[in-house]
Amino acid sequence: MGNWFRLGDLELLVVSDGIIRQDAGATFGLVPKVMWERYTPDLDDKNRIPVGLNSLLIRSEGKTILVDTGVGAKPVRAPGAMTIEQSGRLLENLRTEGVSLDEIDIVINTHLHFDHCGGNTMMGDGVPVPAFPRARYFIGKSEWEAASHPNERTRGTYLLENFEPLQDASQVELVAGEVEVAKGVRVMPAPGHTEGHCVIELESCGRYGLCVGELSQVPVMLERLAWISAFDVLPLVSLSTKRRMMDWAVEKRALLISVHAPFPGLGRLVAEEGGRRKWLEARENGADL
Ligand SMILES: [Zn+2]
User: How far is the CA of 52 from the centre of ligand 1 (A)?
Assistant: First the structure.
């Protein structure tokens, strides 16, 4: 069906919720424009770059898992550094792929910023309700706490309507440490972007994958460990998380699934001479992987 592809026994599909435009200076943090601009051919006249909203569907032993849910279709006011170009396409794209909302057993949010969990809920009778009625929603415990008690710097992106209704419906599973939610699908702490940020490690039949969440917005940020966005609340922790995970990804030849790279955001990191890493993109869902 559609663009499903396999990683060992796992079946995978990338589904888009749309595109946001994000301030490029904030995206690259301390890195000066003269160094990053060659990696952003789509820079617009307001210094913004397009950023994908890729959700990953996984099928493992009869369970259907959705990682991140984009901006969603509810009315939303984006934080200052971002503009929504197109959003709310996730549910329609799932239907196009023949996936119904009550088929989703598990939703994982890498973190609770508005562009990763907006599709968790949808409007029903004028109030936000869980979009996936049967799903358990797996969210990092410390992320939940940060989102529930935002501060002046974080409150623009933690929108209660994206996660509070899940708790009202008793559909939340708060996780701490590594948790295998289905065979070969493991939620892993990856602090830095936020303290409770998680990534999803995939393993099946000796093949590996990693949904990188917000370890990067632009793939070159996976090649260059010190290229860390100004959105990260713990940049030096991001540095050590990226070092550990990108070393692992190179060693395991892991398929990388990037939430924010252009759709579908699939690629691999390979080692080059001199210890450099290079991102190799796959332009189509599953192609040459
Ligand atoms: Zn994001």
Answer: 9
Task: Tell me what pLDDT residue 275 has.
Answer: 83
The CA 241 to ligand 1 mean position distance, Å, reads: 17
| pLDDT at position 1 | 45
State pLDDT tens for residues 147-168: 999 999 999 999 999 999 999 9
How remote is the CA of residue 16 from the centroid of ligand 1, in Å? Answer: 13
* Span 252-279, average pLDDT: 93
C-alpha 2 – ligand 1 centre gap (Å): 26
- Between the CA of 205 and the centroid of ligand 1 the distance, in Å, is 30
Q: Domains along the chain?
A: 5-282 (3.60.15.10)
Distance 219 CA to ligand 1 centre (A): 13
Residue 196 Cα, ligand 1 centroid: separation in angstroms?
A: 14
pLDDT mean across residues, the chain:
94
Ligand 1 centroid – CA 116 distance (Å):
6
**Distance of CA 188 from the midpoint of ligand 1 (Å):** 17
164 Cα to the center of ligand 1, angstroms: 19
Could you write out the three-class secondary structure of the chain? Answer: CCCCEEECCEEEEEEEEEEEEEEHHHHHCCCCHHHHHHHCCCCCCCCEEEEEEEEEEEEECCEEEEECCCCCCCCCCCCCCEEEEECCCHHHHHHHCCCCHHHCCEEECCCCCHHHHHHHEEEECCEEEECCCCCEEEEEHHHHHHHHCCCCCCCCCCCHHHCHHHHHCCCEEEECCCEEEECCEEEEECCCCCCCCEEEEEEECCEEEEECCCCCCCCHHHHCCCCCCCCCCCHHHHHHHHHHHHHHHHHCCCEEECCCCCCCCEEEEEECHHHCEEEEEECCCCCCC
